[in-house]
């Protein structure tokens, strides 16, 4: 028999029930029943509407039906009589993943029921035998003998099939064949058991005033109507496909909602990440993929909006698309789904306070309530204050006479409740879960973006290539599991993180001091095991530990403690910070200097201050550059005449303070005498009045000095770039090294939205890339000027102009960069990049203000500008000393009328200039 004739006879036999079917027909019917029963185990994502399917998915629909079940299996709990009874009370859920082989079982599937027995059965689709449970075959034979033509319809929401077609012709024939409509069978059944067949009912219609025509009334769970009778007697496990859930959930959603769904799906697929959230939060995130549309759009909007209650009309507006009101039925189904899955809460389950209603209601509603209460107020603020005062008043006799037995507060709340109507808000569980999810999934990103609710804008700009990030999208990143091993560790980090955020928002000094005291106690209560766990992390991941966050709060709070004169507590905290040998070690020199200042100037313990500084100078873990920052304090104590300090301590201090390289007067300088403009108050930058062809103008000190250098003809170009130029040179020549993942360094890149690698601001940056950095420095130093220019061209053109990174271009053009590099020569460029590459965290600041160069003579100079009252920082002196030692011209430029008053400055001499402005109009 040919394949086509076999199929025709099969459906012909199925359409006629006058004669008993043959054994082969029984097997065919049984095979189809098993197929449809297995299909009935699959439930759609949404109970109301089928998910929209794109054209690309429709084109591959039938091939997907044949291949999707190759690595899947169907579990049926209905095996025998007793198992059917037990399965009615429990429904198990399986989330299917081909890579994990059904490892997403959330509850026990089968109790202690016997394993099913399989029997070979002939399949009309594959034209071969396949194994079928014996219970299925028996029930199929029984129904066939009764002549019951009950064939459930197939759910259209999920295009699934169990049997894999071996022949392309067979698949095409079965696809093209249309099953004839069932005719009503009038034959008397052989058994007294009633038939379970369902006849299709007429579709109800109603007149739509919007569409101006009759439309079919949509009913709940239409796609599963024909499965109702068969599913009512059994509750099999549901098989949910992760890929299908995510695809269907994103279909028709806007970009912002898809961003949220993407990180939810990514989180659920990472086994190492799930343990970091509570089981309740994991269930909530799983339900997010099954929310009726457009429910997740509402959840996303409410999370980024102001936290609080919203009226029913506001919720509908937020949930709708712009200029496209949401269908009322769809909105009701979405709200019902959100409430059932505990993503939203309503005013019927939680009490709303007076302040909540006051923020919800508008001015007209509040003034109307005041009018009913005989209160005359016309503004919203006045109405709120009057109602608040009215609520605090005791009930008077008029309430009793008018029939009101409740208090004034209850009466006002009832009136406000009637005005507001139904109100909803994002549940506390949903808000907490989403907050923790965003922190985990964007751990490497600057948290300021999340705090200021700019994350969605950042993601949109990155998608449209308006503001991109330097991390390669194809790079395999680490996740938060390299930082947090358990839920407890993540919870401790969240506690410390929330404390730090609360500390930043405080403005009252007393409140900040109270937080500092609490944090100090929390830091001292960290157990030895917890501290060892934090210290075992790489240096660049210490920022995500509670110990590091607490230390950051404590060192910031020292200034607040000094304001309220709690010097003893400040000294105790600084002692604890100095004894710490792991976290924020780049700040240790500042801790020594601050503690010595308090001991010397506030507590007048001069000997203790001197001994502390000597201990700091002998500290082996501090670099010489770091020790330079405590030398000014040591010099002041050592040379103070009225300080009761022993001679031995003075001599020891003077040994460490007498370092000529860090003195300001050892560097070249230029003095320009110019009267500054008067300032209102003591704050603000000093400005100078200048005459130009366009008229009088005001210039800051840096701009005035640039004009001065240009007018003298010493340089043709000048810009106030500070350290941007040297950091830009470094980034262009070392970009591939900076943004590549170093071998063996986990957690350097945790997010595609990082501005830089996390180890950039640690000493480990150079250690992790030592070989590559040294090799690149050698290439630059040995390169010709043409080769160096070519390297800059390639690096500049390979990066988009709007890219965000630690190294912004900041208005600097490629031509300017090439001119500066040409004046520096390859050796000068290599010298500047060498200091940044080896000590970027320390050397990224302190570079001189002005960059001046002469295009023709190829001369360049870096100038630090100071007015009469300015003092250079230690980092600025170190940068200038470093460049002078390597042949790069640099100097100070003092501008004002008292430029020689400070003793630390170099007085005018042979190597300096002291002259008024060469231009009479300046």
Automatic annotation (TrEMBL):
The yes or no answer to whether the keyword ATP-binding is present is: no
Per its UniProt record, the required cofactor names are:
Mg(2+); Mn(2+)
**Known catalytic reactions:** Hydrolytically removes 5'-nucleotides successively from the 3'-hydroxy termini of 3'-hydroxy-terminated oligonucleotides
- Cellular localisation: Nucleus
Fetch the Pfam families from UniProt: FAN1_TPR, VRR_NUC
Question: GO biological process annotations for this chain's record?
Answer: interstrand cross-link repair
UniProt entry keywords in alphabetical sequence: DNA damage, DNA repair, Hydrolase, Magnesium, Manganese, Metal-binding, Nuclease, Nucleus
- Give a short account of what the protein does: Nuclease required for the repair of DNA interstrand cross-links (ICL). Acts as a 5'-3' exonuclease that anchors at a cut end of DNA and cleaves DNA successively at every third nucleotide, allowing to excise an ICL from one strand through flanking incisions.
**PANTHER family xrefs:** FANCONI-ASSOCIATED NUCLEASE 1
Return the protein name. Answer: Fanconi-associated nuclease
